[in-house]
Amino acid sequence: MSEKVKSKIKEKKAKLRAPMTVKDWVKFIILMIISIVFIAPILLVLMNSFKGKLFVSNEPFAFPNAESFVGLKNYTNGIEKIDFFSAFFVSLFITVCSVILIVLATAMCAWFITRVKTWYTKLIYILFAFSMIVPFQMVMYPMSQVANMLHLDNMFGIVIIYLGFGAGLSVFMFAGFVKSVPLEIEEAAMIDGCGPMKTFFLIDFPILRPSAITVAILQAMWIWNDYLLPTLILSDVKTLPMAIQYLRGGYGSIDMAAMMAMLVLAIIPIIIFYFACQKYIIKGVMAGAVKG
Amino acid sequence: MQKAIKKWFPVLALPTVVAFLISFLIPFIMGIYLSFCKFKTVKNAKWVGFDNYLKAFANEDFINALWFTVKFTIVSVITINILAFLFAMLLTKALRGTNVFRTIFFMPNLIGGIVLGYIWLMIINGVLQYFNATITTDASYGFWGLVILMNWQLIGYMMIIYISGIQNISPDLIEAAQIDGANSVQRLFHITIPQVMPSITICLFLTLTNSFKLFDQNYALTAGAPGKSTQMLALDIYNTFYGRVGWQGVGQAKAVIFFLIVAAIALTQLFLTRRKEVEN
After folding, report:
1. Which range marks the domain in which residue A88 is found?
2. What's the N-to-C CA distance of chain B in angstroms?
3. A110/A239 same-domain check
């Protein structure tokens, strides 16, 4: 770090300690207002989740009062209607299994195609990179047919489908990091008698840990929130987004009260996850943005 | 060493390659072939040449969806990027609580499309009921509803990218400009904006592709209503496949056209960033 940057940082720290000027206060107040605008939708959902059906659609901006307050009725009602807990665990199962499989399999694959240089590893790499620019709609119909034929239409099979769809971005990101691992370390390990598998798991994988976290977060966010793919694949169970969509019912009749309660339950795990690993999430999403 | 690793292909690379073949590559090739066929299931496809493509372009829903998507993309790309840049400018000045603000603004980006759609359905219908309307009364309500939703979702994300761009500007440059007597507006246009050009390119293309490919939010918020007037391309393709018997081939042809547009956008970005890298 240069002297200049250091002094700038010092200056900023001093500024943070100094009393705020009028201009700072104006900025602070503007930011406060924007923050309220950003949080308000979630608070509105929370508020309405305790109100009766009629009050959600007629007075969505009023606080619950003695007349409109229904306690946890919307929650019990919604949980029963969409079988919330089974949907929650299906989503959790699919997300966790897919993420573990994607991180392990694509890290190995990326290592293989960067270390072995022949025509087919180059071809695989190009195909993976290509898959990133293809929109899902292009393959969704034939893919669901293939999945059906191979009996992958259950919560175990879908994990394999997710591995295939996640491969593009993950291999691309891992390959970038594998290149930065010095060959000499690997060679030394092999001379000392490590086989390729041992070398990968004892030498490379620990070095790749930061990128593994990035990949895991990007894939977890995508799979947890994904709606269309599981809708087309799964025949016997529902994921959380599918269950929420299920509340819509036929021709626009939506039980908005139960919907609000289910939205709250769907958002809570995301917020917990966000606050638990906020630093990694922002870093991971940034890395994904630059690569994608 | 290469040879030793090569032997382990079945363990190291094969699982990913097989999964990739099943879920992407084979369906992709099938998709191109099927776009030239009439079929109800994959097994009874009959070659019909460019018939599906002609039908797709003659299909009013498709053209309408294309225009709706283009209009939506232009409006949301402009609004999201301007607002995100302004927020980033506000947050890069040393100020109390900047990290808290950052955390709050970024949060909506983590919430899934279906959930986002229903959050805003409740709010927008809540506002519109004071005017005796709902979001499906008029196509323009659905349009602006989607724009607002998209802004709420993506501003925080783009803001983070702009912030890192602004923080990478060398303090020397700003100081030199200050000494030369540049005011804050001049500094913005002659230093900050040219210096964050890489971030601007990334954000423009991220918002562009995200808006263009939008599905979940569209499906949850309006589902295309009233009629099919707020249907975006991805939703139109979905409805052609699963809502119209015997039109699967046309749906696949629409999907190929959709793919070509998205690929053209992505390749433009690649070309632009490559050229920048050469210049530097």
Report:
1. 83-246
2. 36
3. yes
- Cβ atoms B118, A259 nearer than 8 A: yes
| pLDDT at residue B279 tops 80 | no
How many CA within 13 A on the CB side of residue B161? 28
Domain closes at, from A20, A49, A71: A71
Pick the CATH number of B56-279 from 1.10.3720.10, 3.40.50.1000, 3.30.70.100, 1.10.10.1100: 1.10.3720.10
* Partners of A281 in beta bridges: none
Chain mean position to CA A85: 20
When pLDDT is averaged across residues A33-47 and rounded to a whole number, the result is: 92
Domain boundary residue, one of A37, A71, A105: A71
B206 contacts A259? CB cut-off 8 A: no
- Determine what percent of chain A is predicted with pLDDT higher than 70: 91
The one-letter amino acid code at A284 reads: G
Cβ contact, residue pair B136, A252, below 8 Å: yes
Considering B2-6, B42-46, B66-70, the range whose residues carry the highest mean pLDDT is: B66-70
Which chain B residues touch A91 with a CB distance below 8 Å?
A: none
User: Is B24 in contact with A170 (CB distance < 8 Å)?
Assistant: no
Which residues from B are below 8 Å from A286, CB to CB? Answer: 160-161, 164
Chain B residue numbers with beta carbons less than 8 Å from the beta carbon of A116 are 2, 5-6, 9
Where do the structural domains in chain B lie, given as residue ranges? 56-279
Domains: count for chain A: 2
Which ipTM value was assigned to this complex?
Answer: 0.89
CB-based contact, B226 to chain A, within 8 Å: no
What is the rounded average pLDDT for all residues in chain B? Answer: 89
- Taking the model in full, what pTM does it have? 0.89
Model confidence at A11, pLDDT cuts 50, 70, 90, reads low
Question: Do the chains contact at A133 and B262, CB–CB below 8 Å?
Answer: yes
